[in-house]
Design goal:
Number of domains of chain B: 2
CATH class of the largest domain in chain A: Alpha Beta
Number of domains of chain A: 2
Structural class of chain B: mainly alpha
Strand content of chain A: 5-15%
Distance between the termini of chain A: 74 Å
Radius of gyration of chain B: 21 Å
Number of strands of chain B: 2
Number of strands of chain A: 7
Order of helices and strands of chain B: HHHHHHHHHHHHHHEHHEH
Number of helices of chain A: 12
Strand order of the largest sheet of chain A: 2-1-5-4-3-6-7
Largest sheet of chain B: 2 strands, antiparallel
CATH superfamily of the largest domain in chain A: Glutaredoxin
Number of helices of chain B: 17
Shape of chain B: globular
Oligomer: heterodimer
Radius of gyration of chain A: 23 Å
CATH architecture of the largest domain in chain A: 3-Layer(aba) Sandwich
Chain lengths: 283, 301
């Protein structure tokens, strides 16, 4: 009886330790989601008055952009310099939005300060994107490298494997997305984790599945020991879809689950739009 | 010699909790992974563990046999899981539901929950519910993954996806705690399965092993082998005084004297411990029957 009691208490202790160990990870996450939320609010403003804002973004040029400066000021300056191209109504809408953005930017700056105070070495290592030095080959054997990303404002990278039912279910939707993106300056590529290291049999199988789902966008086989291969092996839930910008950086949050689900599709499209916007703003 | 055997049976039953703990630890040996939110993906994952232990538990050393069975049946390349079925037969014939009582992590989890003091209810009147697990086995583990498929012949692992509370406990909860991306992807299905887990937890406190008795398809498979498995329980009629202490002690509602190898018996050994005459013991490969056989042979010559 006594042994049983000690046993139960040790077990409870282990569970308690387990839970506390996990919960300490929550803190930096919380600021992450808040930050995300704030950016989301900004993007919502741009989306609400997209006619006006697209006009503004069209006038921006990279040489005047000052990354350390206040973003709201930067927007205001751009509008000020091109005042004549806007109607009074448009100017009023933009001015209102800029005030809201100014407030959001202040909050973002605050979070940024606290976050950099307790940044851990783990975050630093994340800075190096696994797609900076990229190499792989498509299913026809043609070699590709990181120039794949530099050709487009945004590259949608979908990780999947052949035996994954939800992955296969979204293939046709990804193909549609690829068609849509072509006109917007984007591309969809697939990385099948079974086709690592040019595995012939797996590539054949994957190609057959792709064909059956009428998916014609590029799929790549990467080296399992490469950074991209390691990144793919670390993914714990399939399908996972991420966005890579022109410079090979992963941007935004990975989308888990098939984009044949409308919520996932919308979330991905929002992120794609903001990457394309950021890209054109940097030009 | 005989006394020694009984003593060994009693001892085995006495340290059951520790054996369960050791089995749980061994089948979930990659403990650091729990904090990383990453699943161990080595070669050992191609092998099944005996108990119900989710493949997606970050610490899991092997695959869950029920999960593996559905994955193969539901894949486009195979129509039936021959390898996993062979595994079931091998383990069923050697150990039977001894696995439920001694090796299954989810069985241990329910045992521990049942130790929480409070009102306890008997399941003796709920015996018909025992058949539910066979229906779950046939419908959710075999038929649905085999028959409900997409255009390329892939099915869903219906039991894992819609029922299994062990998947939530060992897979979804630790993975989502350690992995922000997965946490953000949790939806209605996760809530639904959490509800199942909470129900099983509450029922386990009130009843003894409700999941094993009524739901578990793995227990259902092993139960089919209980009558013929190498490891069984023997009641020596010469010593039995018919006091019914064994049946009273049995939490799986079995009349031990009549049917010591009933499909519901999980070999927990409570009857062995309860017997005042030491008339009940574990037996492997029916040693007595072998001896009898040799005697017969001698007579023959």
């Amino acid at each position: 009886m006594k042994t049983k009691k000690t046993f139960i208490s040790i077990f409870t202790l282990c569970i308690a330790l387990l839970l506390t160990a996990c919960s300490t990870k929550e803190a930096p996450e919380a600021s992450d989601t808040k930050l995300d939320d704030l950016y989301q609010q900004e993007n919502q403003l741009f989306a609400d008055h997209d006619d006006e804002w697209n006009k503004v973004f069209g006038m921006m040029n990279k040489s005047t952009a000052d990354p350390s400066g206040n973003y709201a000021d930067y927007l205001a300056d751009t509008i000020e310099a091109n005042k004549t191209s806007f109607t009074d109504d448009e100017l009023k809408i933009l001015a209102d939005d800029i005030e809201t953005i100014r407030k959001i930017e202040e909050q973002i700056a605050e979070i940024g300060n606290t976050a950099s105070d307790n940044s851990d070495p783990k975050n630093d290592s994340k800075d190096e994107s696994p797609f900076k030095n990229f190499s792989g080959q498509d299913f026809d054997g043609n070699a590709v490298d990181e120039s794949l990303f530099s050709e487009n404002a945004v590259t949608v990278v979908n990780f999947w494997f052949t035996g994954c039912k939800p992955c296969v279910a979204e293939l046709s939707k990804l193909n549609e997305l690829n068609d849509t993106l072509q006109s917007m300056g984007g591309e969809v590529i697939g990385i099948n984790t079974e086709t690592f290291d040019g595995n012939e049999a797996a590539i054949k199988e994957a190609a057959a599945i792709l064909e059956s789902q009428k998916a014609e966008y590029r799929n790549l086989s990467v080296n399992s020991a490469s950074d991209a291969g390691k990144y793919a092996s670390g993914i714990m839930a399939f399908p996972t879809t991420i966005l890579v910008d022109r410079n090979g950086n992963i941007v935004g949050k990975p989308v888990l689950g098939g984009i044949d689900n409308q919520d996932n599709y919308d979330a991905l499209m929002d992120q794609i739009q903001s990457v394309i916007d950021a890209d054109s703003a940097n030009k | 010699m005989d006394k020694k055997k009984k003593l060994r049976s009693k001892k085995t039953a006495g340290i059951r909790g520790w054996i369960q703990a050791a089995a749980t630890l061994l089948t979930n040996i990659h403990i650091p992974n729990l904090f990383k939110g990453k699943i161990y993906q080595g070669n050992a994952k191609a092998v099944c563990v005996p108990g119900l232990n989710c493949y997606s538990c970050p610490a899991a050393a092997g695959a869950c046999p029920i999960g593996a069975f559905q994955a193969v049946v539901g894949s486009s390349g195979f129509k039936f899981s021959y390898y996993v079925t062979g595994f079931f037969i091998l383990l069923g014939v050697t150990l039977g539901r001894f696995i439920c009582g001694f090796l299954c992590p989810f069985g241990w989890f329910q045992d521990l929950l049942h130790k929480i003091p409070g009102v306890k209810f008997s399941t003796a009147r709920l015996k018909p519910l025992r058949y539910l697990k066979y229906i779950i086995l046939i419908v959710f583990v075999i038929l649905l993954p085999m028959l409900i498929t997409n255009s390329v012949g892939m099915g869903d692992p219906f039991f894992c996806k819609y029922i299994c509370p062990q998947g939530v406990l060992e897979g979804a909860i630790p993975l989502s705690l350690g992995n922000a991306a997965i946490r953000s992807a949790l939806g209605k299905l996760f809530s639904f399965k959490c509800l199942i887990l909470v129900t099983v937890v509450i029922l386990s406190i009130l009843f003894y092993r409700p999941f094993c008795k009524w739901i578990c398809p793995l227990g259902a498979i092993y139960s089919l082998f209980n009558k013929i498995s190498f490891l069984d329980i023997k009641v020596e009629n010469s010593k039995c005084i018919g006091c019914s202490q064994c049946s009273k002690a049995c939490k799986m509602d079995i009349d031990v004297c009549k049917t010591p190898n009933h499909p519901e018996c999980i070999r927990c050994g409570d009857c062995i411990k309860a017997c005042p005459k030491d008339a009940i013991h574990y037996r492997f490969m029916g040693k007595e029957s072998i001896r009898l056989h040799q005697v017969n042979d001698k007579n023959h010559f």
